[in-house]
User: Fold this.
Amino acid sequence: MDFLSSFTGLDLPLWGWLIVLTAGAGIGIAKTAVPGSGILVVVLMAMALPSRMSVGVLLPMLLFGDVFAVGKFWRHTDRRQLFTLLPFAFLGLGAGYMILRYVTNEQLKPIIGAVVLFMLGVHQVSRVLKKRSTERGDPASARTNPLLTVLFGFASGLGTGMANSSGPIMSLYFLIVGLPKLPFIATTAWFFFIMNLLKVPLFLNLGLISGQSLRVNLLTVPSIALGALLGYWIVNRISQERFNQIVLGLAFVAALRLLF
Assistant:
């Protein structure tokens, strides 16, 4: 642990370093196999690091994971869905940026916890909506409702701009419009790759990305790559719904830990 502390300038307990060194695997899997499950990593990193620092550390990790996902699945992208959502997401991103300018570490931690709990609730609602749509024989019925696009686009931009944590919101939207698995993963990957690139200058301006945070990022590169490769294997071999249930259950416990 002495080397890690001297290299990064951070004095973390053993459990904190374990989270930092392995969190990238969760991002890799989230990007290439289970969109939305990255909220678990968001919560864990906010527990291991100062809240504002965790947001800055996560952004380069997410971008690295995006590269793996886009490179693998880009041919399956639903361009219509992507370009319809982006304008509203840009507005949400601006709102999230303004929030980050005025909150402290202690204020941000419960905000992240509340956002994650909201997203977990969103996931549960999505399961009910998907089931009802299937029973009606019209799983794509929500495609024609422009209000959904506005609300989910803005909420996704807000969540990713404030706490790198809007994956579940996008997952809900794409479940409602009935995207198949591979277009689901590909369109999600492109959406967040674009949004995360836009966040880089904003986070630099806020001081969330620094030399110290980038040194922490270097430690996470191997686990992100391993997680992405594991995600390639998982996506065709395990029930995504079952995996989501496990990850969301863990995220629920972690979110409560942030709030209380």
User: Anything to note?
Assistant: The first helix runs from residue 2 to 8. The CA atoms of residues 120 and 249 lie 9 Å apart.
